[in-house]
Structures are given as C-alpha cells and as structure tokens.
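Run log, item B.
One chain of 385 residues. Sequence copied directly from the ordering sheet:
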Amino acid sequence: MKPSDFSHQLADLDAQTLLRTRRVVASPCDAEIMIDGHRLVNFCSNDYLGLANDPALIAAAQEGARRYGVGAGASHLVCGHAAPHEALERRLAAFVGAERALLFSTGYMANLGVVTALLGPDDAIFSDVLNHASLIDAARLSRATIHRYSHLDLVELEAQLSQSAAPRKLVVSDAVFSMDGDIAPLDRLLALCEGHDALLLADDAHGFGVMGRQGRGTPAHFGLNSPRLIHMGTLGKAAGVSGAFVAGSAGLIEWLLQKARTYIYTTASPPLLAHALLTSINLIEAGDDRRARLTARIAQFHRQLKLRRWRLAESCTPIQPLIVGDNQEALAVAQALMERGLWVVAIRPPTVPSGTARLRITLSAAHSAAHVDLLTAALMELEAR
C-alpha cells in the first residue's frame, strides 16, 4: 500500500456519498446544543433520560474528582480498582438482579472481552445479522464458528442451534437494535438457549435505564433471571456518564475478571466517573417521571408525523429511524433540518444495509413538546418537496 492510496480511497468514499464528517459541539450534551455558533435542537444523542448535563451528576463528578483525583493510575488488577468501582459493581448487580457485575471502559470493550473469554476455535456463536459492530468484531476475534441468522428469525436460529455439535454455544443479540429501534424477544431467545445448552449475551446498550421496571433494562422488561443470561449494559447513554458493565452469575463474572483481555490489560476508568454513576443509578431507579416524559415524546412524534414517501420504522423505543433510502437524499434532508435549527444525523451504508439510508432520530426526556412540534413540521415540509 502506498501513502497516496488513502487519497484515492477517500475520494471513492466521497463519490459514493459515504464520507463521514465530524461536528464540534461547544456546549454540554442537552436537548439544545451549540455547533459552529448556532443553537440546534439535538435529535441524535443517546442521552435518553436527559442525565448527561444533570446538576446532581455534575456535583457527584466534582466530588469524585476531589476525593479520588482524575485518573485511576493502573488497571483494575494492579492498583486501579478504587472504592467507587467496587461500590458501583455491587450496586449494578443488585439493580439488575444479578449475582455480580464487572465494569468495562466501554460497551465495545465489554463485548470483545466477554465473547473472546468464553469462546475458542472449537465453539460456535450465533449472531443476529443486524447486531452492533462490537458483537460482530467480537465473534471474529473469538475464532469460533460464526452462524448468522436473519434479523429476529428464531426459526432459523433454532435450526442452526439444533445442527451445531460445538461444545460451547453462545447466542448474541442487541436487546434494542441501535439502527432500527426494535426489541429482541429475549424471553424466546433465552428459551432456545435453555433448550440447546447455550448462553445468551444481550447487548442492552440502548435498553438499560429506559426499558423494564425502574429502568433495570430489557431483561427486566421480559422478567428474565437465568444463569444462562449475560447482561451487558452501557453507562454513557441513558445513564449519562461513561463506561459499561457485564452482569451475570458469580462464576461467569469471576471468569471474565480472570480472562477478559479488554478488562485485564487496560487502565481502569477514572474513579470519579464511578462515583458519579452511583448517583446516576439512583436517578434511573427513581426516574419514572423521566421515562414517562420520554414515552410521551415518542407517542407525540408518531401521532404528528404523517408521511407519504419515507417510512418510519416500527419502534416504541427512543430510537426512531426514518427510512429515506437514497444516500444523497438522506444527507440533503439532514442538512436542510440543520438549516432549520434541528440536528438529525443521516446514517448510510455500511452502517445500515444498502438502499436503507435513514435519519436516525433519537428522542430524550429532555425534549419538550415544542421541540417535537418543530421536528415533525420540518420533516413533513421537506418530504413534500
């Protein structure tokens, strides 16, 4: 490969309308943010409960910095496992109803760590075709045999499980799918795992804090409690801070502590974040009013948006994908929305299948009814052009 190859490859991406760009945000994450000197209503963050800029979390982070400094100084297994880390793991385990929990720096690292610690070349992994990139990469790194089943097709999955003679089997699935907003039937997936001696890894990045009683997550939404269930949740979305956790049986968590390379070989996250997250879990647990506001905004969006050409995917979650289809049109609509003071990101292949470019609209408890009024009116005006 020559250095000049990068220029050619980037030009090819640009020609296909697939070149990605970044915007610099000059304000805290909130329902309204500042970009390039303009105030925009933010419809593309994962801050589903509006906690990212909550004064109680800011105060908790400041207190954590005063008590523990700004860096952990080492990995968890050296001298980086601070008192707030330990307290947060215990709090998370109790909150989701698991025996133990283990903190990871990111959800991506959690999925890589879990899958590669559990599976090897003789084993088998069963993965929904629309799973998050972290689960796809984790499966590849594990060197296990990969079986991909059609999105939410449990008949196909059961056939694959029945035909597999692998000594260890792991079914992996998003709990709430990040680009479509639909919910995996975790109860039926778990039943298949129990019938075929498999484990189930549920990536609850977009469900934790929102789904289930008191926001305990998508497994709680289905009333699940099983030693076969591995619950991964992220702490930078509805929880408003940063990081991730894996919860499950005591034996599973101890094995991950001993074998998950993305846990062992990285510096622990700053203790101040864990200290702030202890407050975040309390706010999530007591946050039925926030979830009620979020539900109201989702219902309002569906009630008001009347479309003729584009298609709104069926989703009762904060993720509301508006399928436009063409890459260029999706980008043009996103730009037109920005010019109207609304920030919505266009998602294109390879993140989503070819021909399904979309506006990935995400709603938050921090949004007002007036914010949603502006969005629906603008979308209907632009579609009618």
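Observations after the first pass:
- Residues 325 and 355 are 5 Å apart (CA to CA).
- Residues 55-285 form a domain with the Aspartate Aminotransferase; domain 2 fold (CATH 3.40.640.10).
Flagged for discussion on Thursday.
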